[in-house]
Amino acid sequence: MLTLFHHPLVASCRYVRLSCAEYGEELQLIDEKPWLRRPELLEMNPAGTLPVLLAEGDTPIVGAGVIAEYLDETRGALMRERRLYGDDPFTRAEVRRLVDWYLVKTDNEVTRHLVRERAFKPLMTSMQGGGSPDSAAIRAARANVKPHMKYTNWLAGTRDWLAGDRLSYADLAAAAALSVLDYLGEVPWEDYRAARDWYGRIKSRPSFRPLLADRAPGLSPVSHYADLDF
């Protein structure tokens, strides 16, 4: 069994969990508080970032993108129509572009700021950067939700799945990022019907069920978070 060092409200960790589940891989999950920079984590990844996957032979594989490539090479290449990168180079290029959009651009502009201010800082000491939430950072992140949702709505309204005609890593990356925001109650789904319908399909997949059971210390999800008929 593979082992994943993760935090339940880090989008890139959710992406890896969804990817492994879609490929039928069970995971042992080890919760990490990334601000603690535990020596055990730093030994595997000197950067101290998540996620880290312990693969066969307890070999650490660091970072969501690298883990996804590893899974594609060791599992996806054998999956044919279930391969999450797609079969042709142009499809794979589009999938990679959208994975970068949601795990890098959306994270830099929205997700990580809301998670840090609302979920992490209350648990951190002042020496670790904790304290009262930065209202300016929260306002800026919330302002950035709208363009990301508009783009997701356009993708969902013009394609069967976000990168094309079948489920891919792009859908899992978007679902990972938006599910974190949904946990925090930061997504105005009523304004984005196509995105909501797409998210409902993702949310109903067996791979998503463990995420619906996630609970972060000191911060409960919004009431509709686990509701498939939200």
From TrEMBL:
Q: Which GO terms describe its molecular function?
A: glutathione transferase activity
Task: Outline the extent of the GST C-terminal domain.
Answer: 88-225
Assembly, in brief, is: Homodimer.
**Would the keyword Phosphoprotein be found if you checked this record's keyword annotation?**
no
Coiled coil location: none
Pfam families documented for this protein: GST_C, GST_N_2
Task: Name the UniProt key words of this record, in alphabetical order.
Answer: Transferase
Protein name in UniProt: Glutathione S-transferase family protein
Query: Is Transferase a UniProt keyword of this protein?
Result: yes
Q: Which example biological process does GO assign this protein?
A: glutathione metabolic process
Q: Which residues form the GST N-terminal domain?
A: 1-79
